[in-house]
Amino acid sequence: MSKRIAIVTGGIGGLGSAMCRRLAAQGCHVIAADLAVRAERITAFVDEMRDLEGRVEFAAVDVSSFESCGKLMAEVEGRHGRIDIVVNAAGITRDASLRKMELAQWLDLMRVNLDSLFNVCRPVVQGMMDRGFGRIVNISSVNGQTGQFGQTNYSAAKSGVHGFTMALARETAAKGVTVNTVSPGYCDTALVQSVPEKIRAGIIAQIPAGRLGSPDDIANAVAFLASDSAAYITGANLPVNGGYFMSF
Predict the structure, then answer these.
(1) Is residue 248 part of a domain?
(2) Cβ atoms of 187 and 240 closer than 8 Å
């Protein structure tokens, strides 16, 4: 088998970039799929990945659009012959308490964080099943498990991510396609670092591991679930949160 072809949506974000690098190190050819509106960030991403000698490339996509996702998947399959691995990591926040939340804040988040799973997976799942191999890893959040003040939209969407995962896992398991969720806790990203230091210290105090997660912590979990070694794991949620939330 030639190298696996992987697509990572939200691939030029902090966590997404780490996932791309880790999958490339694992031998995959990786397409980092993201919006094409941040030219400076795309240039920086390409520079960051230069040492990987062409194993990571950027492709433009709007995950909230079924047409945009379908076009990307067709282009990738046309160039590489197949898509073996999909990581749905694209996501946004639109925080507000429900009594203050605007309809647009709800709908915009749902289109990116939840509708995107349908938009991305629908064009590729039949091909994976026909070939007898596929790995789909969906990125949820600890806040999809616990809820969070000011995040009814985000928590609902991230909880829905795992519902989608379990249902699709049942549909595809007999055909060699696994579908799993990774639920990150609080990680050392630009978003978390923008939180006031006192609040951030309070968050860390609640994490038994005593630190924020690193992007590599999440990327390693994703890479494992995307590997051949995880063939008998499907419909599962892998929490990567340093013990911040524990459940059976």
Answers:
(1) no
(2) no
Output the pTM of the full model: 0.96
What is the token pair recorded at 150? 């000011």
| Number of structural domains found in the chain | 1
Residue entry with tokens 């896992």 = 169
Q: Where are the alpha helices (DSSP H) in the chain?
A: 14-25, 39-48, 66-80, 103-113, 115-121, 125-131, 142-146, 152-172, 190-193, 197-205, 215-225
Reported as type and span, the H/E element at residue 87 is: strand 85-88
How many CB atoms are closer than 10 A to CB 89?
29
Nearest of 182, 179, 165 to residue 238 by alpha carbon: 182
Amino acid at 113: N
**pLDDT for the residue numbered 194:** 83
Rg (CA), the chain: 17
In a domain, 244, yes or no: no
| Residue owning tokens 């694992």 | 26
Task: Please indicate, yes or no, if residue 245 is contained in any of the structural domains.
Answer: no
Q: What is the CATH number of the domain that holds 85?
A: 3.40.50.720
Residue 83 belongs to what domain range?
5-238
Indicate the average pLDDT of the chain: 96
Query: What residues are labeled active site?
Result: 154
DSSP string covering 38-78: -HHHHHHHHHHTGGGTTSEEEEE--TT-HHHHHHHHHHHHH
Cβ atoms of residues 127 and 175 within 8 Å: no
Nearest-angstrom CA–CA distance, 108 and 206: 31
Strand partners of residue 9: 33, 88
Q: What is the pLDDT of residues 87-137, one digit of tens each?
A: 999 999 999 999 999 999 999 999 999 999 999 999 999 999 999 999 999
